[in-house]
Design a protein that fits this description.
Helix content is about 60%, strand content about 20%. It is an alpha+beta fold. It folds into two domains: about 80 residues, no CATH class; about 60 residues. Strands 2-1-3-4-5-6 form a six-stranded mixed beta sheet. The longest helix has about 80 residues. The radius of gyration is 40 Å and the shape is rod-shaped. The two termini are about 80 Å apart.
């Protein structure tokens, strides 16, 4: 059975490597685990990808704490986690409960922010969709109005032709005036919508 390397306080046993030195971070890249021991407490550290977790069994219950990424695993972090894992059951589990509550509060805050963003995004999409729909409906109504004006223009011209004098009959005089006003409104509306 191969024993895992031991880090005693700030030194890697059986080497000249000091914790926090450039050699320390290089060494961390080369080992999957190590045992940390100091006056503050002891634990086994295991690398999982680019981050490290600390484990210690106390009263037959395994305690686990996140240490740091390889690049951020310092002596201060090792000592803090050793002290935490060395606490009495009551103290340790009280701190864990508080951490979990804080994590949950942060998660809810992030979730609410994401929900708000989704709602805003959904609202923006709905507004954009409604705007496109209203624009399409407006274009359809303008087209219908334009076709209606053309129909009435033809009727006014027919009336002019029938009267012989080039003027619309009495009946179409007002229709002609209305058609001209509608054409002006229509051209203004089309210019303003583009």
């Amino acid at each position: 059975m191969t024993s895992i390397p031991v880090v005693w306080y700030s030194d890697v046993r059986e080497s000249d490597i000091k914790v926090d030195s450039p050699e320390w971070f290089t060494w961390l890249e080369s080992v999957p685990s190590f045992s940390y021991q100091s006056a503050d407490g002891k634990f086994t550290a295991r690398r999982q990808g680019n981050y490290w977790n600390a484990y210690r069994k106390t009263n037959n219950i395994l305690r686990q704490e996140y240490l740091a990424t390889t690049a951020n695993l310092t002596l201060d972090k090792l000592q803090d986690v050793a002290r935490l894992l060395n606490l009495s059951d009551l103290s340790y589990w009280s701190i864990r409960r508080e951490k979990n509550k804080e994590r949950e509060r942060n998660s809810i805050t992030v979730s609410n922010k994401a929900k708000s963003y989704t709602e805003v995004s959904t609202t923006d999409n709905a507004i954009a969709s409604a705007t496109v729909q209203a624009n399409n409906e407006f274009k359809q109504k303008i087209e219908i109005l334009g076709n209606t004006i053309k129909v009435w223009e033809v009727r006014v011209r027919d009336s002019c032709d029938r009267s012989g004098g080039g003027l619309p009959s009495e009946r179409y005089k007002y229709v002609n005036q209305m058609v001209q006003e509608l054409e002006e409104c229509l051209s203004d509306s089309v210019e303003n919508s583009t």
